[in-house]
Write a structure and sequence with these properties.
Layout: H1 2-20, H2 31-56, H3 60-84
Helix pairs in contact: 1-2, 2-3
């Protein structure tokens, strides 16, 4: 499960980096949107680098805790968004 989640995380990082260099229309070029997307991309890539470094230095328990904890926080955030959004 850990290897699958880590490879999926690397794939998500690759897609985020790829989409940074795509042409943007006028609505997507606003600075707050670009800064938010850049922050999400840097966070995902930072977690990938940290987990990869820990994995290469044989600290697998720490790498698993960080990776599963990160996706636990992402899941909690999405559940909070679904609970507080307006579903009209």
């Amino acid at each position: 499960m850990y290897k699958f989640l880590f490879m999926a995380h690397l794939g998500i990082c690759g897609l985020l980096i790829y989409s940074l260099f795509q042409p943007k229309n006028k609505a997507d070029s606003k600075l707050p949107i670009l800064l938010g997307f850049g922050a999400v991309t840097l966070t995902f890539c930072g977690i990938a680098i940290l987990v990869g470094y820990l994995q290469m230095n044989e600290h697998l328990l720490a790498a698993k805790i960080i990776l599963f904890g990160f996706y636990g926080l992402v899941l909690c955030y999405y559940l909070w968004l679904m609970a507080t959004s307006n579903w009209r």
